[in-house]
Amino acid sequence: MKACLLFLLLAAFLLVPPVARAQSAPQLQAQADVDTVGVGDVVHLELSAQSGEGMPTDPQPGATPGFVVRGQSSSPSQTHISINGNRIDRFGLTVDWALLAQRVGTFSVGPPTVSVGGSRFAARPVTIHVVPAGQGPQRQQQQNQNPTPFPQGFSPFDPWRGLFPGVDPGAQSSVVTDPRLALDAPGGTFYFLHAVVDNPSAVVGQQVTFSVYEYLDEGAGAGIEVDPADVHDPTAAEFVKHPLLRDDQEAILVGYASVAGRVWKVNLVRRWALFPLHAGDLVIGPMSVTLLRPRSAAGSKRATDLLHVRVTEPPGAGRPPGYALGDVGHFSLAAQVTPRDLEQGGAVGVHVELSGKGNVPAAMAPPARPGVEWLAPEVHEQLGSVGREADTFGGKRVFDYVVRVHLAGDVDLGEVSLPFWDPDQKRYAVARATLGTVHVKPTAAAPASSGDGPEQETLPGLPPPREALEGTAPSHAHPDDSRLYWLLGVGAWPAAFGIAVAGRAAGRRMTRAWHARRASPATDLKERVTAANAACHGKDARAADAAIAHALEAAAIAHAGVSVRGAVGDEVVHRLEDAGVARDAASRVAELLRECEAARFAPDAADVLSARDRWLRAQGAIRQLVKR
Amino acid sequence: MRGLGFLFAFLVLFSCASTARAQDDPGTLFAQATQALKEGRAGDAIASFEALADRGVVDAVASYDRGLAYATRVRIGAEVPGDLGRAAHGFEEARDLSRDVRLTDDATHALTVVRSEVARRRTRAGQPVEVDPGRSLARTVSSLLAEDTWAVLAAASSALLALGLFVRWLAGAPRWRVACGVVAGVAAPVLAVSIAMTLAARHDRLVLREAVVVTSSARPSDERGIALAGATPLPEGARVEIVEARGPWTRVRFGSIDVSVAAGALRDLAR
Lengths: 628, 271
Description:
- The complex is a heterodimer.
- Chain A has helices at 2-15, 18-22, 140-143, 483-518, 521-536, 541-560, 571-578, 583-601, 608-627; strands at residues 27-32, 36-38, 42-51, 57-60, 67-83, 86-101, 105-109, 113-116, 119-122, 126-131, 191-197, 201-203, 208-217, 225-226, 239-243, 252-259, 262-276, 280-284, 288-293, 301-303, 307-312, 329-338, 341-343, 347-358, 372-374, 378-386, 392-405, 409-412, 415-422, 427-434, 437-441.
- Chain A is an alpha+beta fold.
- In chain A, strands 11, 13, 15, 16 and 17 form a 5-stranded antiparallel β-sheet that branches.
- In chain A, a hairpin with a 2-residue loop joins strand 8 (113-116) and strand 9 (119-122).
- Chain A is elongated, with a radius of gyration of 55 Å.
- Chain B is of the alpha+beta class.
- In chain B, helix 3 packs antiparallel against helix 4 (60-75) and helix 8 runs antiparallel to helix 9 (174-206).
- At the A-B interface, strand 25 and helix 4 of A face helix 1, helix 2, helix 3, helix 4 and helix 6 of B.
């Protein structure tokens, strides 16, 4: 029994080609562009093969039950990298088979295979559902054409429709409407656009699926045509946009809707995966078209509403180190290191494959280690719509690094990791791929295995790190933030001095004004009149006459502006007349002055009563001077 | 049996919560970061230091070590574009935040090393080597003293000026009048300068926003974001003053240059 087993093992060892034993298996991935098609539709089966050993050749689709192969196209690619004499080669082959569905059922197609170095390798088979003709998700519209002699109209989203004029079967009364497509009211007659997002609130980097549907009135009985030159796509400047429908893809009939009691045919014309770039209330602009037909609506615009998406950042709590804002989705990492054995100073190739759905990061942070130098990667990507309804963006990005190892011995390359926010689970997760250890043989030409080869030249003399936080400085109030500081601390002193100087100057001005006021003719007249009154009530007639004379002289100055003091004879009258006083009044003043002078200097005793009489007449003369 | 199940579930939940708490704890993050930095795992250290910054931790040592982590990644040959700028940012922030003279000196020295490397690369590329045009004269003078010191000086010189003027005004003796005139004559310009510096320092504290260029080529643009023909990119690691932030573009002042650059090319300095 043991001998038989040994014989079998030996036979197997001899039968397997030596090349196949020496090489590692190529990376193969097979996928179909759709997973459900109708009978008569074409599905594309794509095989992608990557190998470091040789160019994949002789691609075969494998078993294709239910399908007929209608065509095949191949795209080979090669990458050669040479560093320090170490050459790294990568060979790629992408093959596309067009398969025509022939019968209803669920079929496992493949596995597709390729040959590398004389050995054949197989990918995983692909399962495709075939439904009856016309029921495929993307080919239903073509199946529903019904030729008639009348043109049906043109849609820019369905440019082929005009080539096959006919009545759209959607107008038939037997159609089944989809309540999910129903609206409260139509956005226009005959035709309107309706835009929706699947999620009005998201985090930065989370996919928001934006869809625009056109609604065509099935009961209008008239051809509807949109001006293809006046179609304006929505603006979404604050998002990264990835179309989930191909640019050249026909509009997709998604069903029929009942809106305001009428049946509308609903086509999907735009579907984008939008990834918000920052937090805030982000706006998606309207999409607009202009109708050409029917004639009654020609020239009228149809536009979608503005849509708002409220975007926040993922929570800070639990955020793993290394998380980059915008890394949202669900991702996985796989890595391959070849070769594992090298000489010191040589290089290995690190093949990192990042796959998943969501905002697939465009860059990866390699694990930086001393003595391990990561060169800029070569990046390949296969991104697009994924999922059963093709409403999710995703795929894979491949990063091919060349890594130079300056150390000798067993060198641990560490692991590549990608922290991300999973919006479905509402938590952070980390995708990891361990790179493992490479075995580096020391060479005499290479520097000693200290790992300090490159850093001897770059950034020498950096100071050592610190190991304890310093703590935040206690915040304190600044005096200059207070108004009191500026008012009392800085402004009060000069202000006090200014007030003192100004006060003193004002006091001086008031004193001068007071004195000036006291020296005015009117004040003098008032004082003279008061003195005359007082003197006339006394017993000294000479004093009374003197006071009366002074009052008259003061009145002449105050009211006529002329001094009559010292004037003799008719000079008093002349002066007063020259000043504009009437002759009669001037004469009375002159007469009274003469009488007063005579009484004051008469040798006889003076009579007080006469003086009082003269004062009465003098007051009348003064009033005449006032009336002048 | 059911009790054991509950106990097990409780322990699992408790351990998960503890892990989450430890992951959010700044002290733990800092310890992880410094450990990774000591072991030369620059990428891991950077991730932890950045996580620390994301949690709002503003600390001179954290900024300094973060700068060292980026510089280490450059040293070990795993440089990611912008690492030199981010290293300079960490050192600049540490210099601004620190109250420790030795840490400030180390940060200044490290900054010199990083900027020398940037200047060396720019020389190779045939670009101007000026990386640090320095601060304006007014800002240099205002930073000679602390804002509070300028404020106290302003108040003292104000009082002295008023006192000199009063005494000179009221005094009869000529020697007093001359002495007080001299005092007032000195106090007046000191008052003017100290008020100006107090206001400048206060403005810097409340309004001034600065950033560091963290890309290898921050291409100057006009206000519409159109790249200026013939303009030299701002040097990586340069400290610039933010004049105005407008959407994806930020207007900055670098020395005597006043241009707009992409907002992503800058990283604000924490205050």
